[in-house]
Amino acid sequence: MTRQAVLVVDLQKDYLPEGRMALEGVHEAVANAARVIADAREKGIPVFHMWHEAPEADAGFFLPGSEGTQIIPQVTPQEGEQVLRKHYPNSFRETGLLDLLRAEGIEAITMVGAMSHICIAATGRAATDFGFDVTTIHDACATRALEFDGVTVPAAQVHAANMAALDFAYGKAIATADYLSD
């Protein structure tokens, strides 16, 4: 049997509507992430939490010591669950995550979190490059609209494009209900 883990990426207060970097659909994503986490805990699947803190005080969000860096209560880590601080989109970069996963014999990662187009995308790609089987729970992730070259790309399209890329070449992207029914 493949040893798996759930990776919760950056579900922190600055992503809430009242935060410094509000995401569309964040409440639904957090609710679905909480369901995935509860399922993992019930089955004894390890849960790892990534906690993003900006390395500079002028970053705009996830400011050191701010309320916005706090993990959203519905997905609060339980005693014994690993919480790793990160400063970059890729959850593996300078965090020790890879060593922890390997030490526990983890072969498959299920990801939930934010932002779909940055930290989820970077972490999913890196995890695949490191040889993990990656499943992204698409409706347990959230993002926001982006602007490029005078064009605003709606959050739903940003999210869909990134989930499509992950599903195409970096594992699979599935809904919470499908994940929980397996």
TrEMBL record:
InterPro entries, A to Z: Isochorismatase-like_dom (IPR000868), Isochorismatase-like_hydrls (IPR050272), Isochorismatase-like_sf (IPR036380)
Keywords linked to the UniProt accession: Hydrolase
Coiled coil: none
GO MF annotation, one: hydrolase activity
This protein's record includes keyword Hydrolase: yes
Gene3D superfamilies documented for this protein: Isochorismatase-like
Name by which UniProt lists this protein: Cysteine hydrolase
Annotated source species: Altericroceibacterium spongiae
